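[Archive record]
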Amino acid sequence: MEAMMTGMINNIFFIIFPIIIYQMLATAGQRNFFVSHRVTMTVLFSISIILCMLFPYQFLTDQYIFDLRQVPMIVGALYGGPLVSAVLFLVSSGGRFLIGGDGMYIAIFNQFVIAAGVPFLRPLYMRLKRFGKIVLVFCISIASLLFNMLAGAYFFGDPIHDIIGIWVMLIINQGTIIVLTALMIEHMQRQEYLYNSLLKHEKMETVSHFAAAVSHELRNPLQSIKGFIQLMKEYDYSREKQVEFHSLILKEINAAEDLIDDYLVYAKPTYGQLEPITVSTEVHHVLKIMAPYANGKDVKMQIGDMDETAEILVDRQKFQQALVNIIRNGVESMPDGGTLAIAAKSSPAKVWIEVTDEGVGMTKEEVQRLGEPYFSNKIKGTGLGMMVTYSIVSQMNGQIMVDSQKGKGTEFTLEFPNIATFEKK
């Protein structure tokens, strides 16, 4: 009994291991078990068949040696189709021929019937719901074992009433394993399908957020332009007033162009020549640019520890843009004023730029959503600035890390590869 259980467990393992390997290695979102990995899965099921045949087990009496090779054969034929079924038949019949012994030709003929007949049931199998698939695969297993029982009784003269109990147990044994195998595959495919649907939903949601942000942001300058044009059409303004209107219209057009450029940077970033820059030099330059804005908000900008030797390989203009966006966000997070500190550190492999504010801070959920389209802590914000910032840093081999506490401020850390790592390559 112990040997029988050990052999059965081994056979079950030989069947499920290719399915587990597939689940680990297959690309997420594949809806058909064999579609994208047909060759791999055929090889794995062939190995299962061979191992099941090499390690059979005695069932109830010493006269019956049994294995579960039919399980991968039937499952492979249903999910893989005629070509996969033919390959599995060649493997199983070749293995059975080498093993030899009584019943060899019956077993090979039975395998041929499975390989030739089961693929015709594949279209029906794929249309059925889960319960229908379970019933069909169980019936195929029963039919296959009944064929073996009747053929054995006919050729070897064993009375049916003497062996019916053994074969009923074999039917239950193999039927249970093949049903569990089919359920495992169906569950895995369902998870893959749901994951694929989730990815599509997220993409559509991103597109809808983009559409909402574009329409929201472009409507304001377009409404202004439309209003000025209508006024100039209906009233006869002086030349001086018309020039003023022209100037305002051009200003709104430039605002709309800047917005579109920002979206293009996020959607399809384009960079000029990457060049080595000294981080401290760029930080001082950006702080000079942002000083008037910070002073107007009663925010003091402070330079902390600054590694004067730290260098990175980036697009200078885009790097400045990303740093400006982060500093502006930090300033705007301190409506009552405060201090914004910036520092730069380096190691032989990495360079870190830290921007710390004393602003309102964020919750963990808000930090996780940073960089998403149309997410912003500002009342009239669209989140576009941080979207662009994350895109810029990511495309230049960097990453952004955020540490924030509600009411205690936020620290942004920009991490880039040290230029020394590029020189070594």
